[in-house]
Every structure is written in structure tokens, then in C-alpha cells.
Amino acid sequence: MLGENHSLLNEFPEYRDIISRLMESDKVFAKDTKRYNDLDKEIRELELNGTPIDDDAMHQLKNERAALKDSLYHRLVDVKNN
Predict the structure, then answer these.
(1) Taking the CB of residue 24, how many other CB atoms lie within 10 A of it?
(2) Domain residues of the chain, as ranges?
(3) Cβ–Cβ < 8 Å for 72, 15
(4) Largest alpha-carbon pair distance within the chain?
(5) pLDDT per residue as tens digits for the range 7-33
(6) SS3 for 46-61, per residue?
(7) Where would I find the H helices in 7-54?
(8) Could you give the CA distance from residue 26 to residue 23 in angstroms, rounded to a whole number?
(9) 45, 70, 74, 79: which is deepest, by most CB within 10 A?
(10) CA-CA distance, 9 to 40, in Å (whole number)?
(11) What's the predicted TM-score (pTM) here?
């Protein structure tokens, strides 16, 4: 759906405590989470405002967001299981 919020906390509410803990203790996780949330916001704004962007550029943004989401999710699962 266009304009849907995919922030990390919206995507993984069951990991809220782990996300908060890692945001404070893991600089790389915090940096990647910020980048993920910034990308999500940029994509959402582009979709909602109809800002001109070519399909390849939008596809690249969405691929980067998906790769970050996958990486962040695996880190959350690793922390939960250890």
C-alpha cells in the first residue's frame, strides 16, 4: 500500500524492548535503524506527494530498505535467542 509506515517499531512491535536496548548499546544497530527509518520516511513521502522519481530510483530505495530490514531483523532474532 502506498504511504504505509514501515518503521522498525511498526514492523516488529514484539521486539520493542530489544530495539530500545540495542539503540542505546549498539552504535551500528542505531545507525542502521536510523538509516532504515529515514529511507522508509523518504519512500512514504515520495509515494504520498507524487514527487517525480523514476521507477529505477524508487526500486533502488525500496531494495536498500528491504536489505536493511532483513539485516536488522536477523540481529534482533540473534539477541532474542542469546
Answers:
(1) 10
(2) 8-81
(3) no
(4) 45
(5) 899 999 999 999 999 999 999 999 999
(6) HHHHCCCCCHHHHHHH
(7) 8-11, 16-25, 27-49
(8) 6
(9) 79
(10) 12
(11) 0.87
